[in-house]
Write a structure and sequence with these properties.
Length: 859
């Protein structure tokens, strides 16, 4: 009980000094809990939606997906004959059966040709209004569509795009563009996560989406009273046979949920990974805080030992303080985490994904995990300072002594740090010279971990050398104040090393990712310059196929010398070694593609691959399956016949663009795949006549104006698009890493604040002999800048090493240009100095306000 009272007294006596450590714990726990609550809420939202919108049993065509998505390479959904509905109605246990038509291979535009698709990545769905949808949607304005000239829209889409009754809407499909006017607006009775949904009458939907009547994409089956979904499914299969996909409501919901979870899990674990980085940075802050508090209470601890307290009791006293810190920070963090989740939901609402707070899901495991993480991390971080406190001897109470410094431990630390850093460097070198990406990736991961730990362990040794160099470069110009700042930073190299290491971790990741991202852009740009011989690239940013009407518009554009179509498809391959490879990619293109993409061949001529019944393969595929020029590969095209194609060319596997592609001609594909099953173009390439590039570019954009789902880019545009895509990803990652950097800044603030308290008497004496308040504040700011710049140097150097090694692994996949983004690196370095200035504001202000006499009188 005495130990507990002592711990409570010490904790609340230093509550101000504990505050920043508590904030670090709070932020880390809040990020973990916020991530879990947000992803759990999204799962709940989608789960409710899928359960509410699923019929008891659903029947679809054999080629349809488990999730019901109808996006296909042909631009049209798989269908089943309308006669199936009559057959199902006769099945025992069926109460009702209704055929519907819908597709996600569509683009919907308003009369100004602006797309009405969600920005969140959710699908655009056009289908027939039916009884199953009427269970989850209520017509709140107008009426359901009747006739080809009417269409109904969901309320969220209508509100977002300011649609009202009577507005003209265009539905663009592979069959053409259908125009209709808004006849009604329907509101979801469940949460709509952001899909844009449009309804036509059944006959119009069939003609618009499929091109013929008498077919459906789905049949929704309702079970009679007392009949389970599983029994109904068996009965339907018994009647129809195995030629259709038959699923219960639970199977449909589970398939959709699994699809959503695969996306959510990537986001969830990525965000938890950044939370883990924040926790790691927070550990340094907590270690520093308790180390300094223990040092400042050496006399007090010595007195406790002198009056009978054991080492265990002193140790326990410090750990109880850490426990209190962890509990308070974690409890507040759990509450803040719920707030973060709500904020993320609002943010998602801004981009079109509607999440209701009514579905806010806080599982009991979330606060438990948050509390457990926060408390365990805090107590573990405080263990070393607590152990050090237990070593204070009773004699320390009789003199002005601090916690014992173990010179032997310092030597051991330096040796261990050098060994770890050397082993990490060797792993990085081995990764950079690896021949296979898989082995190299493992070595890279090992090298990153070892060098990071090594730099952390060796931090005090590095601080002693680097701070002196920085002092000579940055601080000497400030005269005596600069020299005092340098001396203060060198006074406790262990503390400076730990504070700098916290900042080092975040900046190392920033530097590494910057190098990797910049190198990928530079490599892709270099490959474009070397291999792409076309002027313009037409494609959809959402991966939609290009409709025949849009392709015709491209071909009719004046000023073009040639147009090349590019159609990826899949087939089952049987190779000369007797192996059968299911669902293998193969690209059908026009022969001019050999000119548009100057792809390097290791055998044969790529142009020959476009001869009748011919193809090409890439080098690695050829080596793996014993393929050489003249080999025959049996290719069973999806939805088509089986061909025996002759290998006429073997391409290099080391190029970035179309890496690993296998080519044949569109004419060969058309020979074996019926016209109704032919895949549509994924990309169209166009080249202008000599001297007409600018005119053709403008004409091509004008020709595709009424197809806003497609983008026309010249090579400059395409390079910029690649740069923007990678830049957006990096910016998102930098935003998440900002949490770790914020925690690191808190560490600098806390270290300076406690350092000011520790040096109260010294500061008073310096003020007494003539040091002005302005000079004192400058001294503390300069000390902070040196610590921040020290951490930045370590982090940026380490990160660039990681990034350069990662780029050598990427070179195995064709990304062979190393590009150091010096503007970013220099910008981060300069920003770290401003971080140091910012972190010193409060400690410097408090130091400047000290009463000189009281400071001198401080024990």
């Amino acid at each position: 009980m005495t130990v507990l009272k002592t711990s409570l007294r010490n904790f609340f006596a230093h509550k101000g000094r504990m505050a920043l450590s508590a904030v670090a714990v709070l932020l880390s726990v809040a990020f973990v809990c916020g991530t879990l609550v947000f992803t759990d809420t999204m799962n709940t939202t989608f789960d409710k939606l899928f359960q509410a919108t699923s019929s008891d049993v659903k029947v679809t065509a054999k080629g349809s997906s488990d999730t019901g998505q109808t996006t296909s390479r042909t631009g049209r959904p798989p269908v089943l004959p309308a006669s199936v509905v009559g057959e199902i109605r006769k099945v025992q246990g069926v109460k009702a059966a209704e055929g519907t038509v819908f597709s996600t291979s569509v683009t919907v535009v308003d009369r100004d040709l602006d797309k009405l698709s969600p920005n969140s990545g959710a699908p655009t769905i056009v289908g027939s209004w039916n009884g199953n949808d009427a269970r989850t949607m209520k017509i709140t304005s107008g009426a359901a569509p009747h006739g080809s000239g009417q269409i109904m829209v969901d309320a969220d889409t209508a509100e977002k795009h300011h649609l009202k009754l009577g507005d003209d809407i265009g539905v663009i499909t592979a069959l053409g563009t259908h125009h209709a006017r808004v006849s009604g607006i329907a509101t979801f009775t469940v949460t709509n996560p952001g899909a844009a949904i449009f309804y036509l009458d059944t006959r119009t939907a069939q003609q618009t989406l499929v091109g013929r009547t008498g077919v459906y994409t789905d049949v929704n089956v309702t079970a009679a009273k007392g009949v389970t979904d599983a029994r109904l499914k068996k009965n339907v299969i018994a009647e129809l046979g195995r030629g259709y996909r038959v699923q219960t409501a639970k199977e449909v919901a589970d398939a959709n949920q699994k699809s959503v979870e695969s996306f959510l899990n990537v986001m969830k674990y990525a965000m938890l990974g950044f939370a883990g980085i924040a926790f790691l940075v927070g550990i340094f802050l907590i270690i520093n805080t308790f180390s300094m508090l223990v040092a400042q209470r050496t006399r007090e601890i010595g007195l406790m030992r002198a009056i009978g307290s054991s080492r265990r009791q002193v140790n326990r006293s410090v750990l109880i303080e850490a426990l209190l810190l962890g509990v308070i920070g974690s409890v507040l963090g759990v509450g803040a985490g719920v707030g973060i989740a709500v904020g993320l939901m609002k943010l998602m609402g801004q981009i079109g994904m509607h999440l209701s707070t009514d579905d806010l899901t806080v599982a009991w495991t979330t606060p438990v995990l948050g509390l457990l993480l926060g408390v365990v991390v805090t107590v573990l971080a405080a263990y070393l300072p607590a152990r050090r406190a237990g070593k204070v001897s009773p004699m320390a109470a009789l003199r002005d002594a601090h916690a014992p410094a173990d010179a032997r431990a310092g030597v051991v630390r330096a040796v261990v740090g050098l060994v770890l850093t050397g082993a990490g460097g060797a792993s990085l070198f081995a990764a950079a010279t690896a021949d296979k990406a898989k082995a190299g990736s493992s070595l890279l991961g090992l090298g990153v971990v070892l060098t990071l730990i090594g730099f952390v362990v060796i931090g005090p040794l590095l601080a002693g050398g680097l701070v002196r160099v920085l002092g000579a470069v940055l601080l000497r110009v400030f005269g005596p104040v600069g020299r005092m700042a340098e001396r203060n930073a060198l006074r406790n190299p262990r503390r400076t090393g730990a504070t700098g290491a916290a900042l080092m971790i975040g900046l190392a990741l920033v530097a590494c990712l910057s190098v990797v991202g910049s190198s990928m852009v530079a490599s892709a740009t270099d490959q474009l310059d070397k291999t792409v011989g076309t002027d313009f690239i037409v494609m959809s940013d959402r991966g939609e196929v290009i409709t025949p009407q849009a392709v015709r518009a491209v071909k009719d554009t004046p000023g073009l010398a040639r147009v090349t179509e590019y159609r990826p498809t899949v087939a089952d391959f049987t190779t000369p070694d007797g192996k059968t490879l299911k669902d293998t990619d193969i690209t059908a293109a026009d022969p001019s593609y050999a000119t548009d993409l100057r792809k390097k061949t290791v055998a044969g001529d790529l142009l020959d691959a476009y001869l009748p019944d011919s193809m090409s393969v890439h080098e690695k595929f050829a080596k793996a399956h014993g393929i050489h020029l003249g080999s025959k590969i049996t290719v069973a095209f999806r939805d088509g016949a089986t061909a025996h194609l002759t290998v006429r060319a073997i391409t290099s596997s080391d190029e970035v663009i179309d890496q690993g592609a296998k080519y044949t001609s569109i004419a060969t594909l058309a020979k074996y795949v019926p016209a109704g099953k032919m895949p549509l173009d994924q990309i169209v390439f166009a080249s202008a006549r000599d001297g007409q590039q600018d005119t053709a570019y403008k004409a091509l954009k004008s020709a595709l104006h009424k197809y806003p789902q497609y983008t026309v880019r010249d090579q400059t545009d395409y390079k910029q698009a690649l740069k923007d895509q990678i830049g957006q990803l990096l910016n998102m990652i930098y935003g998440l890493l900002a949490l770790a950097i914020i925690v690191a800044v808190l560490g600098v603030v806390n270290t300076l604040a406690l350092s000011v308290v520790e040096r109260t008497r010294e500061i008073g004496l310096m003020r007494a002999i003539g040091l002005s308040r302005r000079q004192l504040r400058r001294m503390i700011r300069l000390e902070s800048v040196v610590i921040a710049v020290f951490g930045a140097l370590l982090g940026l150097g380490l990160g660039m090493g990681w990034g350069a090694t990662a780029q050598r692994l990427l070179a195995l996949s064709g990304f062979d240009v190393l590009d150091i983004p010096w503007p970013t690196i220099i910008g981060v370095f300069v920003a770290s100095a401003f971080v140091g200035l910012f972190a010193a504001l409060i400690p410097a202000f408090r130091a400047g306000r000290m009463n000189v006499l009281n400071a001198i009188a401080t024990e």
